[in-house]
Amino acid sequence: xxxxxxxxxxxxxxxxxxxxxxxxxxxxxxxxxxxxxxxxxxxxxxxxxxxxxxxxxxxxxxxxxxxxxxxxxxxxxxxxxxxxxxxxxxxxxxxxxxxxxxxxxxxxxxxxxxxxxxxxxxxxxxxxxxxxxxxxxxxxxxxxxxxxxxxxxxxxxxxxxxxxxxxxxxxxxxxxxxxxxxxxxxxxxxxxxxxxxxxxxxxxxxxxxxxxxxxxxxxxxxxxxxxxxxxxxxxxxxxxxxxxxxxxxxxxxxxxxxxxxxxxxxxxxxxxxxxxxxxxxxxxxxxxxxxxxxxxxxxxxxxxxxxxxxxxxxxxxxxxxxxxxxxxxxxxxxxxxxxxxxxxxxxxxxx
Amino acid sequence: xxxxxxxxxxxxxxxxxxxxxxxxxxxxxxxxxxxxxxxxxxxxxxxxxxxxxxxxxxxxxxxxxxxxxxxxxxxxxxxxxxxxxxxxxxxxxxxxxxxxxxxxxxxxxxxxxxxxxxxxxxxxxxxxxxxxxxxxxxxxxxxxxxxxxxxxxxxxxxxxxxxxxxxxxxxxxxxxxxxxxxxxxxxxxxxxxxxxxxxxxxxxxxxxxxxxxxxxxxxxxxxxxxxxxxxxxxxxxxxxxxxxxxxxxxxxxxxxxxxxxxxxxxxxxxxxxxxxxxxxxxxxxxxxxxxxxxxxxxxxxxxxxxxxxxxxxxxxxxxxxxxxxxxxxxxxxxxxxxxxxxxxxxxxxxx
Lengths: 351, 351
Fold this sequence. Notes:
homodimer; 10 helices
């Protein structure tokens, strides 16, 4: 029998596990709302993302990883805006209050919150099917936020790190690809414990012309930037960065391309930058241990074109994942799988 | 067959239905996050609340009312802080994208959003069991937010309007009380379409010593104020304001007291105020069509005491609703009802 907790005990456990003190948090948990004092000359950035068990993560995901990931996907949105994280609110729907589950969840959530100085300032716990909705607020110097709409013809298209690891991890977990235990564990970790690129996002302010995080899938997400900016792009598939584990699992570029192009959940940043800014950016990124990669170029002609090393066009049937258009099969989803599937991709639609 | 929508179509429909333009919203829906520009000298107030079908509203609730209520319960939190609403983010989990459902939801949400000038600045739609999580942000002049912690011995305990209507509406819907069609319809409306007391909350700034909204149940919510303020109170049960419909349904004060004391979902404000401020407040409230009622007094002795008209103590077995302590029956919940019940009370625990 799992130990049951009352509601206030539950909130209190989360608060203690995730406590981060900030001077701009005047009132945190414990009133009708949280009271924050924005710094002068700053804009506020707000984002929300929900994770549903069996939809956004496999049902066997460790609660510690659910805690981490539910905050990570939101901090990734702040990173894509170039914002510094400030605080988070957690709306947790749980079938029952299991103390061990909750402690593990709080450990994962708290580890990432402390790393980025994020205060948990509000919460709401409800009985129901497991669902985790996190809202984050961040700040950015006035008028300096990174938007999707600034890409210009001639800009380089870049990504902050390897693509496709999370999708490969899911495919391995679901038995759709065979891999050894070590590779499976490594790639599953990319799925369960994504790293939001917060410091890089801040470093990109005033340098990148547009940015987005890779959550729905690289093609879908770059597509959002292109539409918002009114431009097109050509991407060289062979240049997509792949992790060592991915290279060992799928040495052939063509075999891993579907996972890299359409698989979501990577939470790397995809950004555009004027060519003359690239060398300086590369040095700045290197100083923080990051090595972004140029994978294409923005063009005036609308549309997204993928080419192989020789410049030949590659057909890409599917550009992203849509929660509400399930008649089209998703490349990383098993054929004939029950609906809802045991585990699928991406964070759903974002707006 | 319900018409199915793609994700962006879905977000776009919501956006169009709920569009409110604000100068302090620099970027709304359509980027990784929303970008707001807080006014100088203002504090930000943040609150989140989740509504789960069958837990927070009866399963037969009209989607228009779900849209209204999901925003109303959050605006009520802002009202209790004395904050002016600015913007909302909506995390919607839906079993499937039914165009008619979504349009109706947007109509209800949008009607209340426009009434209070709330911009919908972010959204997230996910496939899963129906769940609606709304985050609101509001603003209040620096240092002027109403808190739960300011009640002082001698202050009057007041409520902004009738208590118990929503609980009675639920009891009628569930067949636990008999009432005519007209009364049932009237009280059901209190359950489905609560009115957040936003203007009154703003008017209470600098006048009320503490405030909270009545969501979990009057005793539970006043209890939060007492604990936060380190004081106690005596409440005269016969003074609890009751609507005409409630008086017709349950003319006997003792019969309606359980619904009024422990039933949640009223979203009236409960506040405390120094006696000398009361006449001025009453005039100010009257000017906005409100008639708050004095129902008790704050005392130095901790604890919450309920007395009848003669001053005799009334035993109150249960002070609120706890989502995760279901072994204790809830006064407004049917005995022997399946778990989760078809419809229950309150918004769950808040922090």
